[in-house]
Design goal:
Layout lengths: L1 H15 L24 E3 L13 H5 L5 E7 L5 E9 L8 H5 L5 E3 L14 E2 L1 H5 L1
Antiparallel strand pairs: 1-4, 2-3, 3-5
Length: 131
């Protein structure tokens, strides 16, 4: 019984030595992200407007039903999203919306610090998604 106790204590003491830390000092140090990490959504802009053509595929495939799109038409007859909203409190970050987009107008960035104090701040409108 003493042998098992001594073995466990030696493992614990070994991890207390410098260079054997398992934690990261978060604000100063950050772990590297995986190449396929899915973070905050982002609408891809072109020179004149966003790339989205309001085809309604992203809200259709979304399992959480967190995307709202309303289309409009400009003077040239091109469709564009008049309203594009994502409710991040409902989003499960599955990435189906990005895969379904035929014009690759939506992508998921590597931004993962999404904490806010108000529920309204989790509703991302089109202007905020273009930034």
């Amino acid at each position: 019984m003493f042998r098992e106790f001594a073995k466990g204590l030696s493992i614990t003491l070994k991890h207390l030595l410098p260079g054997h830390s398992t934690t990261v000092q978060y604000p100063k140090e950050r772990l590297p992200l995986a190449p396929r990490f899915r973070g905050l959504h982002r609408l891809v802009p072109t020179q004149t407007r966003e790339k989205c053509v309001a085809c309604y595929l992203c809200p259709t495939v979304c399992p959480a039903k967190c995307i709202t799109v309303e289309s409009g038409e400009n003077a040239q007859g091109e469709k564009y999203p008049k309203v594009y909203k994502i409710d991040l409190l409902r989003c499960i970050f599955c990435g189906y919306c990005v895969e379904a987009c035929p014009v690759e107008a939506l992508e998921m960035s590597d931004q993962y610090e999404l904490a806010n104090f108000k529920r309204e701040d989790f509703n991302f409108e089109k202007e905020r998604l273009l930034r």
